[in-house]
Amino acid sequence: MSLDLVGLGIRHPDGNALIDDLNLSVAPGTVTTLTGPSGVGKSTLLNAVGGHLEAGFRLRGRVVLNGRDITDLPAERRDIGVMFQQAVMFPHLSVADNLAFGLSPKLRGRGARKAAVAKALDLAGLAGLGDRDPATLSGGQRARVALMRTMLARPRAVLLDEPFSALDPERRHEIREFVMATIRRSGIPALLVTHDRQDADAAGGPVIALT
Asked: What positions does the domain ABC transporter occupy (predicted)?
């Protein structure tokens, strides 16, 4: 299961080229890091891969996931998960219900879905906290819940847009290692955007500098 960008080009609404003829292959279980100065198009590239490119931007080339051309598919049909800087939780739902919201519709049966949530809580080191209000969690705990919610949707690839930048320094290493290990264990390709060299080192995969 690989993620391939073939001759990908992105033009800003003003006509300037942000990305030009990018060819990139991300192998299963590999986190490829995208670095570069602000404004170079890193997050825009993730938006293009995930199907969230804003109106006015022009895309050429192909996005291929597991041999399937998904370039023209809407975001909800691409099977790509996204983790952002802020771990956004639904405030009116418990931690467990937040996780259940991410469950793949292919998983049927109340018992099976409840078991999947319990397993996710355990893997995230949050066993017994399913009934908690998300507002009572620490930033690191929320980040773990956000990742597990993304993974419960059974994505075929994951996009990470500065997911650790909002964390306290003492929590950053722990959560970073947790995220990378979870992705490797799942065997899916991932793209990481970051300004932090330590994030890239922890990812352990290729580093692509956009200029």
From this structure: 3-211
Q: Which residue, 85, 80, 87, is CA-closest to 159?
A: 80
Tokens 């997050």 belong to residue? 43
Whole-structure pTM value: 0.88
Closest alpha carbon to 35 in 192, 160, 159: 192
Assign 210 to helix, strand or coil.
coil
**Residues linked to residue 11 through DSSP beta bridges, in sequence order:** 17, 58
Structure-token pair, residue 188 = 């899916």
Beta carbons within 8 Å of 198's beta carbon, 6+ residues apart: 172, 173, 176
* Beta strands per DSSP E along 104-173: 157-161
CA–CA distance, 35 with 32 (Å, rounded to integer): 10
Please check whether residue 35 is in contact with residue 207, taking contact to mean a CB–CB distance below 8 angstroms: yes
| Strand-pair partners of 158 | 81, 190
The model's confidence at residue 203, banded by pLDDT at 50, 70 and 90, is: very high
Is residue 4 within 8 A of residue 24, CB to CB? The reply is: yes
Domains and CATH numbers, the chain: 3-90+139-209 (3.40.50.300)
